[in-house]
Amino acid sequence: MVHGTSSLDKLYASVLARRGDQGRLRRLTITPPGTVDFSSNSYLSLSTNADIKCAYLDKIESTTEGELALGPGGSRLLDGNSVAAESLERAIAAFHRAPAGLLFNSGYETNTGLFSCAAQPGDVLVYDELIHASVHDGMRLSKGRRMPFVHNCVKDDIPDTGPAKMIKGLDDVLAELVRGEDGENFRNGQANVFVAVESVYSMDGDLAPLAEIVECVEGRFPNRNGHIIVDEAHATGWLGDRGRGLVSDLGLEDRVWARVHTFGKAMGCNGAIVLCSPTVREYLINYARSLIYTTAMAYPLLAAIGTAYEYLADQI
Predict the structure, then answer these.
(1) Could you tell me if 291 and 113 are in contact, meaning their C-beta atoms sit under 8 angstroms apart?
(2) Alpha-carbon dihedral angle through residues 247, 249, 255, 257, given to the nearest 10 degrees
(3) What are the Aminotransferase class I/classII large domain coordinates in residue numbering (predicted)?
(4) 27 class by beta-carbon count within 10 Å (0-12 exposed, 13-18 middle, 19+ buried)
């Protein structure tokens, strides 16, 4: 039976046509061979590095038949976990000087999983207005209230950007929480505040004033109920000693609650990891739905990530 165009297809076609008229229509493209690509996130070209490719192939060839499976067979909570996955988590955590880590299949799944379950009722998620879309999607699933602050503005005057902004700098937002209706809960540590920033913002390439942010949060919440989450996606692999990221470069590992490092940009692979405490890791295993309900990483990808990190660790 031949079906005609449905009313829904017609609706979608009109929506797409309108987007096209606005010059905003997205398309999948393929980069022609030999093209110099200035839009890629693969800043170091590690995905095509000859030494890394040779080391990766050697790792695959030396793997026992029992370890080398094309697919994991299920989620990590079923039968998809492996010695290779847990060893890689420990190695990456040690590289970034963190107590523990938990792998996710992508940076998007990492942020949606982490931000959707971190906050409890009564908690607040405070975020830089230019934070990545994946963080926004995770926060929408959260039990916490959301409050933005002006991009990279901690205690300074808000930049003059034309019409008056409705949002404030970070310190003013935190002060509002402490003085507000539920302020007692924030002052005595019963309610938590999660502050979300990126170390390097992809669209502008600017760095977060992370040391100042840490001082601000700790000053407003001396009971240690202010928790900073740093998305290091665009810093991983190149910023700081051997590409450990901005948090490590500033020596703030013990003062940042969680870090997200992704492998699909400078690392030239796929996937991501949350660096956190062992307790937070166990909590995410139990409540991060983007980990619980998805198929685990296959061994070939784990081997690729491990090879890229070994390459970084060997650099002088």
Answers:
(1) yes
(2) 20
(3) 36-307
(4) exposed
For the segment 158-197, what is each residue's pLDDT rounded down to a tens digit?
655 555 568 899 999 999 999 988 899 999 999 999 999 9
> Residue 134 corresponds to which tokens in the numbers above?
């994946």
Among 86, 126, 312, 88, which residue's Cα sits nearest to residue 217?
A: 126
Domain spans of the chain?
Answer: 54-313
The two tokens of residue 37 are 């690509």
CA angle 75, 305, 208 (to 5 degrees): 100
pLDDT digits over 110-122, tens only? 999 999 999 999 9
Indicate the fold that domain 54-313 takes in CATH: Aspartate Aminotransferase; domain 2 (3.40.640)
pLDDT in tens, 26-41: 999 888 888 887 788 8
* Distance from C-alpha of 13 to C-alpha of 90, rounded to nearest angstrom: 49
- The string of pLDDT tens digits covering residues 205-261 is 899 999 999 999 999 999 999 999 999 999 999 999 999 999 999 999 999 999 999
- Tell me how far apart the alpha carbons of residues 119 and 138 are, in angstroms, rounded to a whole number: 11
Q: Is 1 exposed, middle or buried (0-12, 13-18, 19+ CB in 10 A)?
A: exposed
Cα–Cα distance for residue pair 106/127, rounded to 1 Å: 21
Per-residue confidence (pLDDT) for residue 165, from 0 to 100: 62
